[in-house]
Amino acid sequence: FFNTKLYTGTGSSNAVTGVGFSPGFVWLKKRSAADNHYLFDVVRGATKYIRSNLTSAEATDPGSLSAFGSDGFTVVSEGDINANGATMASWNWKAGTSFSNSAGANGASLASTGSVNTTAGFSIVSWTSPNSNANTIAHGLGSVPEMIIMKKRGAAGGWVVYHQAMGNTHGMFLSTANAKEDNAGFFNDTSPTSAVFTTGSDGGLINNTMIAYCFAGKQSYSKFGTYTGNGNANGPFCYLGFKPAFVLVKLASGSDDWQILDNKRNPINIMD
Question: Contact 30/80 with Cβ under 8 angstroms?
């Protein structure tokens, strides 16, 4: 349901295989240079990208990721994700089952569509949000999401992040290094349920088409939590109950960059 795939750019059509499944969500980043992050998913469709380090609107580029395949994806001429000789990282999640939910159904005030993998606790959700104070959107997971990453598609706006460790009163922006922010405009101070999540009146969440990536913890597969740093070279140890393949970390109490670690690029500690 998840795999990190490293590849080398070719500068022309490049079919990247070896993912092990047909990915529904692909996150790409050049390793050999300081370029943008590119995010693609099957709900918005191939060639449509949003960049997680920027607040800019969704863009369409036939030279970016041109197709999702049965075992990977194809990238073309966009230099940030397929420059000739550039080393790249791709993080891939499997969704797979399409769903739609009408306004008024399952406690949702707005209609939504998406793709979901209930076994892995992952869904991609698209909806249109009017200019109003609070709305509920069906996520399709059938369990409570513990992390939600949301972005306005048709206009510039920050990436709003919900995390269960911060609670429903606080959020962060994936596109900045800022600390967590107490803002009822993010989630209307309302926790997600097994059916819906709530968005508030923040300008990044209203009056536009939206996309969200929703994650629920699954035993021996995924976990979403918090820890307190100790400033030591060794520690703290964070018990997960499984060996992680992907770790996303952000300082919540202050300003610092988001960090992505995975099991395919060289880790600091030797792994068996």
Answer: yes
**What are the backbone dihedrals phi and psi of residue 79, each rounded to the nearest 5 degrees, phi first?**
-65, -30
**Threshold 0.85, pTM exceeds:** yes
Q: Contact at 8 Å (CB) between 171 and 181?
A: yes
Report the alpha-carbon distance of residue 182 to residue 171 in Å, rounded.
Answer: 7
Question: What is the H or E stretch that residue 82 is in?
Answer: helix 79-82
> Are 211 and 44 a contacting pair, CB within 8 Å?
yes
| DSSP label at residue 86 | -
CA distance 119 to 32: 35
Strand bridging mode 37-41 / 97-101: unpaired
Regions of the chain with pLDDT less than 50: none
Dist. CA 191–CA 145, nearest whole Å: 9
Reported as a single tens digit per residue, the pLDDT across 122-178 is 999 999 999 878 999 999 999 999 999 999 999 999 999 999 999 999 999 999 999
Write down how long the chain is.
Answer: 272
What is the SS3 assignment for 40? Answer: strand
Token pair for 229: 């740093």
> Are 92 and 264 in contact, with CB atoms under 8 Å apart?
no
Q: For the CA atoms of the chain, what is the radius of gyration?
A: 18
**Could you tell me if 263 and 271 are in contact, meaning their C-beta atoms sit under 8 angstroms apart?**
yes
Report d(CA 179, CA 256) in Å as an integer. 7
Helix or strand or coil: residue 252?
Answer: coil
* Amino acid type, 42: V
Q: What is the pLDDT of residue 271?
A: 57
Query: Are 102 and 110 spatial neighbours (Cβ–Cβ below 8 Å)?
Result: no
